[in-house]
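Batch manifest line 544
LIGAND: magnesium ion
JOB: complex structure
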Amino acid sequence: MLLRGVGVGRGIAVGPVVRMPDPLPEPVDEPRTAAADVEFSRALAALGDVSRDLTERARRAGGEAEGVILTQSMMTQDPALIDDIHSRIDAGGTAERAVFEAFSSVRQMLLALGGSPADRAVDIGDVGQRVIARLRGVEPPGVPDVEGPFVLIAGDLAPADAAALDIGQVLGLITLGGGPTSHTAILARSKGIVAVVGVTDATGIVPGTTVLLDAGEGTVTVEPTAEEITAARERLVARRVAVPMGPGTLADGTRIPLLANIGRPSEAAVARDLGAEGVGLVRTELMFMGATIAPTVAEQQAEYRRLFAMFPGKRVVVRTLDAGSDKPLEFLPTGPEENPALGLRGIRATRMHEDVLRDQLAALAAADAETDAEVWVMAPMVADAEEAGYFVSLAREMGVQVAGVMAEVPSCALMAGQVLGIADFVSIGTNDLTQYTLAADRQLGSVASYADPWHPAVLRLVKMLGDAGAQSGRPVGVCGEAAADPLLAVVLVGLGVSSLSMAPTAFEAVRTELRQHTLEHARALAVRALAASTAAEARALVRE
Ligand code: PEP
Ligand code: MG
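JOB STATUS: finished
ARTIFACT:
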């Protein structure tokens, strides 16, 4: 059986399927019917079971993970936590609800402390979920604890689950939801995990069945034959005629710097090892995801300094906080929104909380002054020249040297000439630009086929920006996932893009493809793609 989705990267994976359990709903706050001592004994038994289970897992995991899991196991035996559960049951709650509330209150307390205690908030949340699952007699949520490598199927993954995937164990990832630009797909790419997303028909795959994922083709073959596996491996070999590591260069010598997309300073070393010529997108909101209060200037400055120090003399493009929609930050609240992707996101949210934006810009300027990186700062979700003007003048006031904007809202591309009259540079976020141009939610598997950056409508907007860049003499780069698609990367260059930023795992494939084309050829391919009427046609015309 052959299922279709959208591939992330070009890899191939074969293995047995393991299904990720659905997240547990919050236990209902209702009065208990059982006696308090019966309910408390149930809670104690579940805590004990989870403790033993985690200790066993820690022993099996060994290495660094052993200590982390043992600490989780000890959390279940914390006397203050057990007392709290006891009093909540005495006050009339069920064991599930009491466990939920007691763990949540510890979690909140850790989050409020910030720094390294806040990192433990995720761990305690996970333990609480395990205890509730045990009380209900269901599988605990999160990546299942099974031996041996497997292909994981999930509805979609929370960013924390995606970030925690163990590449030694997870051979591949199939998601029912999410498009190729969802944050799950982005994290899978950055970890080099073969993924096919938006496979809406994958619900029927029975756990344990062998599947073959071909991300290059965007297919999942259920129970593949030996011949099908061999053919897929041959396709993989054919895709890998890599050129040696080095700068991004076209066949005629035109330089197209290959920059890295990263979420934390700790990812910088890997990016450098894989040949990053700098950093084209730092998603700063990912650095402060768990924080309940805004990080101070000093805290931020220390993080940025650590990152900049790794790229002396190199460009590092930092994006100011892109809070909202699928990346909410507690310290930048937006209020309830029916359609968060169309709500207070990016610059809209930080403009409302200007003190937070000012602090971030001050920290960036200070860290820039302390290091030798060439620091550029940009704002996400800028809609027009007025918003670009607001950001650029605030950034300059706070001491930022180079201030630009992301073009990811179609209006920004339509007003490209005006915007590039103000911003020092533009970086195109093709993920959101595609989502908004085609009105296709990037988180939604059912519309993943619409959210295709090959669509000529998206390419026309990129061309407007490329032309405005050429006219103003200001750089226009791409930092969306489109830059990681080797052939599309060539088309983007043909449309006037002068740098490409992507997950470092994509460098090899993009570097190899760029070397096959001159600038003139890239422009000819761009003309072909622009003339197509659908994304599929554009892709097919260029492939030819
Ligand atoms: C984009 O929208 O293309 C982008 C790079 O930003 P993010 O994926 O973080 O929204
Ligand atoms: Mg974006």
